[in-house]
Amino acid sequence: MNIQIQHCLELKVNQLVVHIEHGIGLYKGLTTLTTPNGITTEYLIIVYANKAKLYVPISYLHLISQYRSYTNPNIPLDRLGSSNWKKEKHKVFKKIRDYAAKLLDTYSLRMSKKGFSFSIQYAKYKKFVKNFPFKTTPDQEKVINTVLKDMHKSTPMDRLVCGDVGFGKTEVAMRAAFIAVCNAKQVAILVPTTLLAQQHFNSFSQRFKSWNVNIGILSRFSSDKLIKSNIKQISKGIIHILIGTHKMLFSSIKWKNLGLLIIDEEHRFGVLDKEKIKENYINIDILTLTATPIPRTLNMTINGIRDLSIIATPPEKRRSIKTIVENYDESIIKKAIKKEIERKGQVYFIHNNIMTIQKKANLLKKLIPESKIAVAHGGMKSSYLKEIIKKFYLKNFNILVCTTLIETGIDIPNVNTIIVERADQFGLSQLHQLRGRIGRSHHQAYAWLLVQNLKKTTLNAQKRLEAISKFEDLGAGFILSSHDLEIRGIGNLLGNEQSGHINSLGFSLYMKLLKQAIKNLKSGCSTSLKKMLSFQPEIELYIISLIPSQYISNVNTRLFFYKKIFSAKNKLELKTIKQELKLKFGTIPIEVNNLIKISYLRTIFKKIGIKKAILNKNVGKLCFDKKTPISNHVLLQNLSNNPILSWNFSSETCIQIHYKLCNENARLEWILSFALKIAMIVT
């Protein structure tokens, strides 16, 4: 996922941006300027305090990040030339580096532990797979194979599988559990709710019925007698798979041979629960399933700390859920419910207040007298609640007025309308989960998100509702979680101190630096700020290299392709970009070709350690990194054999070149050829 490229598409005039060297300013669009040398290029205009303007060449786009801070909308602009930004940047970077080291310590401890290498008994496994009643999607197949490879490794697995409700995550878990049981290992399946525990118990019991596998359950629905019996059987190894809520973490369970922990909807567990997991399950394989990974989890996967797999392909015949945001109106409620009942369907009505839920059910009965209504909430006795859910499943009722207890664990194909009251009070991931309770059949499903007054809701709530209604396609969970990460900010999940640091730099730059710090720490490279900010070699060839507005008229589309070209890592990626440009906009102009060649040159420079190249018509200068792999012998050989130039060392790491290359194309082709020859020798 390329967050930076995505943000370029969203960049709007008068939006806050961060220049890595100069701080927070106001983006004012693109402009074309011609230098005294007659070279025309595009520049970003950024306005700072006291109306000072900074013109940033488009080739330095990598130094610009979009500023995002939803916790502090009143951010002052920095002053150009002031030392305040530099001091703040260095102070925050030190904290980022310390935080990165802390994260890596936590996860490297786990990776250093010796795990169990699971073997696959293919004859048994193929027989188990045959019982799956559906055809696996390509994504499912890929994720399953990845999980099996993880389990075969001797280091403990820690994989997060993200896929929307009904996309086949449970089947991934079942296959992993089957492999574990075949290796004489026990499996713990940790779920956040009693209803989901019951759902999984039913599903696993059905799937494993042809095998000699004992499945137990620990939840609020379980009697004390059953709990004691299950705990005893676990210690003896009689129960192979145990499904349970957080009771499973705090019960005095002594496993005989636990090998796999499956966590469903990790974000529903509290800090204490997660600490117990870290403490008790440090050297076993962990597989986490989620429809919308929580921001902190997403943050860790983005930065390469946890392994992430995404199931984005929807099952056949599944339709996206139409999502409508409206002000609360009884006529809308009446119309939506009657429409569903008329097609013999059922409705979830979410009213998340136990004190007034019965009153709401009575109101709905008055609105739709022909309806059959049941009420369900977490304050009910477990036996009564279980009976209500069972009767609703059997279609004894057509409306279930309930709290968010149905968020996970109820899969009823006949329910294809959900109405959520006070939707502005729910988080984005929670809204997505609630919406995921419907749309399990071939019928068109509808999610109605109602608020008291849309105009008076908070800015964050408006952004959440806008995002959930915008991303209604199947498989939107991961995208929504990315938005949630930005809307809420990750600061509250990392502590107040980190929140302050994110406000100082903005979300995008903070994440960029955190990602780079983790990458450098993992590889043992320098983590100094100066090193980390040297993202791109500096290249100035005094030739026209830009995307003309006549070729791509839309400013944001131009920005998108600039970023895409400058972010390319190799020749193949640039070739793909050229094909895309040609397909969408026609024959590529020479200025764009120059831009692509310079980007290619930059990738070579990064490999061979050239950090600066300035070449005009007669004189050039090449500067090398102190750790360049280019030896003096290689350099002398390639420069001395060239009859068109003379050269000398201007410093320990820079050479001055004199030549006659007035033709722009000849100059570009010469430096490209020179770099490629050296690259072939040193790499």
From TrEMBL:
One GO cellular component, as annotated: cytoplasm
Localisation: Cytoplasm
Primary localization: cytoplasm
Residues in Helicase C-terminal domain copies: 332-486
Matches recorded under InterPro entries: CarD-like/TRCF_RID (IPR003711), CarD-like/TRCF_RID_sf (IPR036101), DEAD/DEAH_box_helicase_dom (IPR011545), Helicase_ATP-bd (IPR014001), Helicase_C-like (IPR001650), Mfd (IPR004576), P-loop_NTPase (IPR027417), RecG/Mfd (IPR047112)
Claim: Protease is one of the keywords in the record: no
Domain called Helicase ATP-binding: residue spans: 150-311
Molecular-function annotations in GO: ATP binding; damaged DNA binding; DNA helicase activity; hydrolase activity
SMART domains: CarD_TRCF, DEXDc, HELICc, TRCF
Domain of life (superkingdom): Bacteria
Family: In the C-terminal section; belongs to the helicase family. RecG subfamily. In the N-terminal section; belongs to the UvrB family.
Function: Couples transcription and DNA repair by recognizing RNA polymerase (RNAP) stalled at DNA lesions. Mediates ATP-dependent release of RNAP and its truncated transcript from the DNA, and recruitment of nucleotide excision repair machinery to the damaged site.
Alphabetized NCBIfam families for the sequence: mfd
Protein name: Transcription-repair-coupling factor
Source organism (scientific name): Buchnera aphidicola
Gene: mfd
